[in-house]
Amino acid sequence: MAPRIVRTISRYLLRQHVAPLVFALAALTSLMLIQQVAKQLSGLLGKGLPPGVIAEVFVLSLPFIVAVTLPMAVLVAVLHVFTRLAGDNEITALQAGGVSVARVVAPVLAGATGVALLSFLWNDQLLPRTNHALRTLQVDIARKKPSLTLKEQVINEVVPGQFFLRAARIDGNTNKLKDVTIYDLGDAERRRIITADSGRMAYAAGGRDLFLTLTDGDIEEVNRTDPTQFNRTFYRTNRMRVSGVGNIFVQTEHDTYKSDREMSTCEMRLAATAARRDASRAAEEARQAIDNDLRRLAGLAPILALPEPSTVDTAPPGLYCRALRQLATWLLPAEAEAQTPRAAPPPTPRAPVLQSYITPGAGIGEEQRLRDARGRVATYEVEIQKKYAIATACLVFALVGVPVALRFQRGGVGLVIGVSVAVFAVYYVGLIVGEDLGDQLVVSPFLAMWTPNLIFAAAGVFGLWRIRKPGNAPHGGDWSDVVEVLRRLVSWPGSLLRPAWRSPR
Question: Is residue 346 part of a domain?
C-alpha cells in the first residue's frame, strides 16, 4: 500500500481536475450543441413539428457531441490544472519534498485511464443506439412535408409511381415553385405533362392531400391506346389536388437497418465476420468459374461444386463481447430469456443438383463481389478501431498536456486555449483522413485510426522525459519559448534534440 502522504497527494491532484473537467465538458458540449441548434432549428420549425420532436432531435445529438468533446475536456483540464500548480510553485514544493514529476503525473494518468474506459463504454453502448434513433427520427421528419424535401432541378417522386414533379427553384419557407414540370401517370389510359411558369403548394387540413396552384402554362395529354390523339391546353391558372401525399408525422417504431455507426463493437465484429465469409466464398467461386472455363476449352467436363450449407455464427467474438453477453444473460428476466429463439437445426443433406456453368467473362462478377465484401470488412474494422482510438485519446491528451503545461506554465489561459485548439485540429483532421484511407483499403484499419494517437503519445512521452531530466525543472516558459520551439521544429527537426527546453536564467 502506498504511503499516506502519497495517497493524499494523489487525491489532491485528482480533486483539482474534477471541476475543470466538468466545466470544460459542459462548455465545449454547449458550444457544439448551439451550433447544431443554429444549423437545424430553422428547418425543423418550418415543418410544423411538435416541440417534443424538435427537442428529441437535439437530445439525441448530445451523445455524439459528448463523445467528441470528452477527450477535449481532458486536455483542457490537464493544461489548466498543471499550469496553475506550476505557476503557484506547488510542483516545485512537491519536488523539494522528494516527490518526483513521475509520481505527480501517475494519478492523473490513472484518472485519464478511467475516463477513457467510460468513454469507450459510452461510444460503444449508448452512442450507436442514439445514432440509430436519431437517423430514424430524421427520416420520419423528412417524410413530414414534401415541399421541404423536394430537390431543385431533379424529378421528385411525390406519389410513388403516379405523380412526379420537377422545379427549377423551390422555396421551402413560402412553398413557391418556379419553372414547374409535372408528370401525371395516375390515369392508366392517359399520360399528362403539365408545365407552368410558377406555382404554389398548400396542404389540406389533414395533411394528406397536396394542392397545387399553377400559373401560365399548358397541359399536354396523350392517349396510350391511340397515340395519334394529342391534346394541348393552355391556361392562366390551374388548380390541382394530389391525394395521398401524407403530410403527417408518423414515427417509426422498429427499424432493423443499421449502418456501421449505429452498431456496437460486437455487432460490427459479427458483421465483419459475415463479410469475410462472403469474400472467401466470392474468391472461391471466381476461381471455380475460371477453372471450369479452362476445362471446357480443353474439352473436359466442368467440376460441379456442392453448395455449402450457410450457417450463421452468433457466438460473440472476443472476451469483451462474451462478457457483455454473459452480463445481459444475468440481467434478463427469466421469461424474457425463455423467449430467446432457438438455433435452427442443420439442413438435411440433399442430392447434388447438376449445374450448367455459362460464364462469359468468368470471374468478373465474383471479383466485384470480392471487392465489395472487402470494402464492408474495412468499413466495420475502421469503425471498431475508431471507438478504441477516440476513447484512448483521453489518456493520450493527458500525456501530452502535462509536459506542455509544466514547460510553458506562464502561458496562462491563452496557452490552454491555443494548445487545445491546435491539438484538437490536428488530431481530428488525422482521424478524418485516416478513416477515408482505411475505408478505401489504402492503409490498414489500425494504422488509419491509431496514427494520431501514436504520434501524440510519442510526443507526450518525449516531453515527460525532458522535464524530468536534471536542469529541466518546470520553472519557466511562456509564449516566447513556445515560438522558439516551433521555430526550431520548422527549421530543423534535429535541433529539438539540443537543450531547447531549458529553465530561464
Answer: no
Looking at the fold, whether 217 and 107 belong to one and the same domain comes out as no
Task: Please write the tens of the pLDDT for every residue from 198-216.
Answer: 999 887 655 567 889 999 9
Are the beta carbons of 213 and 237 closer than 8 angstroms?
yes
Q: What are phi and psi of 341, to 5 degrees?
A: -65, 140
Instruction: Confirm if 86 and 406 have CB atoms less than 8 A apart.
Output: yes
Does 166 lie in the same domain as 126?
Answer: no
Could you tell me if 119 and 194 lie in one domain?
no
Which three three-digit cell numbers place residue 12? 489532491
The answer on 21 and 128 residing in a single domain is yes
User: Within this chain, do residues 103 and 124 fall inside the same structural domain, yes or no?
Assistant: yes
Domain stop point among 378, 404, 428: 378
Task: Please give the pLDDT value at position 320.
Answer: 83
**Residue 352 counted as domain residue:** no
* Domain carrying residue 470: 4-142+379-497
User: Is the distance from CB of 133 to CB of 60 less than 8 angstroms?
Assistant: yes
The burial of 66, by beta-carbon neighbours within 10 Å (0-12 exposed, 13-18 middle, 19 or more buried), is given as: buried
Give the angle 79-84-89 at the CA atoms, nearest 5°: 130
If asked whether residues 133 and 186 sit together in one domain, one would say no
pLDDT score recorded for residue 355: 42
Average pLDDT value for residue range 20-47: 88
250 phi and psi angles, rounded to 5 deg: -120, 120
176, three cell numbers: 413557391
Q: What distances in angstroms separate CA 226 from CA 221, 361, 501, one per listed residue?
A: 11, 44, 90
Q: Which residues of 223-256 are buried (b: 16+ CB within 10 A; e: fewer)?
A: eeeeeeeeeeeeeeebeeebeebbbebeeeeeee
Number of domains in the chain: 3
Q: Is the dihedral of CA 261, 266, 270, 273 positive or negative?
A: positive
pLDDT tens-digit map of 89-145? 888 888 787 878 888 889 999 999 999 999 999 999 999 999 999 988 888 887 666
Global pTM reads 0.69
Distance CA 169, CA 180 (A): 8
